[in-house]
């Protein structure tokens, strides 16, 4: 008897909890709804946005996300739809937006609209796998909260604006697979964010990689398939944080012999450059996931140990005089 009263009082205490804890989300802000209708109209009322209808609260629409407390739109993510035209400048009128994405939309053309600078809360901007053209605008340097900027796989031309280095919290920058020219800005060595992942591959960048980049802690650097020159040793050293380095198919020319790596280093692709000297013994102390130094001007014996003999000969072939396992023995 006592027990069942106890059970009932337990039930009484805990049963109402679920209803208490789910406070009702605020309905979608009317201004934001109006802006979204303008965006839809501007994109020619595409089928992809068919769920954007007045009789449904706009927080429940496809491709958007609201803050449940405020009912303001905080994410607009348009992905893989049959959408043609340009990025509507009205996106700048969603003042609480934190994430803006237009991705895998090959019929999206035109330039990156300046209206985006009105989005002062933006932390992620992803405009990728589209046919956007024009330059990487310097005005993106005004989006001070930006942490993630991905403009990869587009038709962007011109040079990389040094202003991007003024973004205090930028931690990942991806400008790969465009048609960018010019040099890597000196200012990138002053990027204030922690552990930057920097992707500039498959462009037409030229010039020496600035030595200033050595002042910065990177996690991943991908410069492959450009026409970059010079030395890369500033990225490496026992006290650095880099773990993945992709530098293949450029014109880098430096002596590899004395390079040191951080203990956590995992991935090194240097193929198709003009790198000389020998393979540093420090490579044997690492847990390498990937190594490719083929098509360079390296010489001497491949150090024995670590993971170095786990890669096949194509990781080492086409050098001046590298030898030893997995290549033929040194004579
Ligand atoms: C939603 O808005 C409230 C009030 O401004 C804020 O405290 C909260 O952090 C926001 N949540 C998200 C997920 O942005
Ligand atoms: C792009 O536009 C063309 C011409 O209107 C159309 O045929 C094609 O299906 C569209 N593709 C996509 C993926 O939207
Ligand atoms: C995209 O939309 C256009 C025009 O509405 C249509 O002609 C085309 O077939 C669509 N393409 C795809 C891949 O659905
Ligand atoms: C978009 O890009 C693809 C491949 O880069 C190209 O084949 C296509 O014609 C482009 N479409 C438009 C509408 O520019
Ligand atoms: C950068 O990030 C820090 C830590 O998350 C935060 O306190 C600061 O406000 C951010 N700066 C800007 C400009 O958003
Ligand atoms: C880079 O990271 C190392 C190890 O975490 C740290 O000791 C060093 O101060 C950092 N350097 C810079 C420039 O942030
Ligand atoms: C790396 O850091 C250690 C300990 O902080 C320090 O003694 C050493 O001099 C540093 N080495 C380099 C190459 O900066
Ligand atoms: C590369 O550096 C090593 C060690 O400092 C040196 O012995 C070697 O001669 C250099 N190689 C070339 C080709 O300059
Ligand atoms: C190394 O790169 C070369 C050139 O791209 C390629 O032919 C070879 O298969 C690669 N080897 C490995 C082990 O990745």
Automatic annotation (TrEMBL):
What is the name of the protein in this document?
A: Polygalacturonase-inhibiting protein
State the Pfam families in the record.
Answer: LRR_1 (PF00560), LRR_14 (PF23598), LRRNT_2 (PF08263)
Which SMART domains does this UniProt record tie to the protein?
A: LRR_TYP
- Taxonomic superkingdom: Eukaryota
Entry keyword annotation includes Signal: yes
Which family is this sequence assigned to?
Answer: Belongs to the polygalacturonase-inhibiting protein family.
Lineage, highest ranks first: Eukaryota, Viridiplantae, Streptophyta, Embryophyta, Tracheophyta
The residue ranges of the Disease resistance R13L4/SHOC-2-like LRR domain are 85-191
- Asked if the keyword Membrane belongs to this entry, the reply reads yes
**Domain Leucine-rich repeat-containing N-terminal plant-type: where?**
30-67
The residues the entry assigns to the signal sequence are: 1-21
* Species: Deinandra increscens subsp. villosa
BP terms from Gene Ontology: defense response; response to other organism
Where in or outside the cell it occurs: the entry states: Cell envelope
| Keywords assigned by UniProt, alphabetized | Leucine-rich repeat, Membrane, Repeat, Signal, Transmembrane, Transmembrane helix
């Amino acid at each position: 008897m006592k027990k069942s009263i106890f059970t009932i009082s337990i039930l009484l205490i805990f049963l109402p909890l679920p209803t208490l804890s789910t406070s009702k989300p605020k309905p979608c802000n009317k201004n934001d709804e109006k802006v979204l209708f303008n965006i839809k109209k501007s994109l020619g009322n595409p089928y992809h946005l068919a769920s954007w209808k007045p009789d449904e609260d706009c927080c429940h629409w496809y491709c958007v996300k609201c803050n449940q407390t405020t009912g303001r739109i905080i994410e607009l993510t348009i992905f893989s739809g049959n959408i043609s035209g340009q990025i509507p400048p009205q996106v700048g009128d969603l003042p609480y937006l934190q994430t803006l994405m237009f991705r895998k939309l090959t019929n999206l053309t035109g330039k990156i609209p300046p209206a985006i600078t009105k989005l002062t809360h933006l932390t992620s901007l992803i405009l990728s796998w589209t046919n956007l053209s024009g330059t990487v605008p310097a005005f993106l340097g005004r989006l001070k909260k930006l942490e993630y900027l991905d403009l990869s796989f587009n038709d962007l031309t011109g040079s990389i604006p040094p202003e991007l280095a003024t973004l205090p919290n930028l931690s990942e920058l991806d400008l790969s697979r465009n048609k960018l020219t010019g040099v890597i800005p000196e200012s990138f060595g002053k990027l204030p964010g922690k552990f930057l992942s920097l992707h500039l591959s498959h462009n037409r960048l030229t010039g020496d990689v600035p030595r200033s980049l050595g002042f910065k802690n990177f996690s991943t650097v991908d410069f492959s398939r450009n026409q970059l020159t010079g030395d890369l040793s500033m990225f490496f050293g026992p006290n650095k944080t880099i773990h993945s380095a992709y530098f293949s198919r450029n014109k880098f020319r430096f002596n590899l012999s004395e390079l040191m790596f951080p203990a956590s280093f995992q991935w090194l692709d240097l193929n198709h450059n003009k790198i000389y000297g020998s393979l540093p013994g420090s490579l044997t102390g690492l847990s390498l996931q990937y190594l490719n130094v083929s098509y360079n001007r390296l010489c001497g014996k491949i150090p024995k140990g670590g993971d170095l003999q786990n890669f096949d000969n194509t990781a080492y072939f086409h050098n001046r005089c590298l030898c030893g396992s997995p290549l033929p023995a040194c004579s």
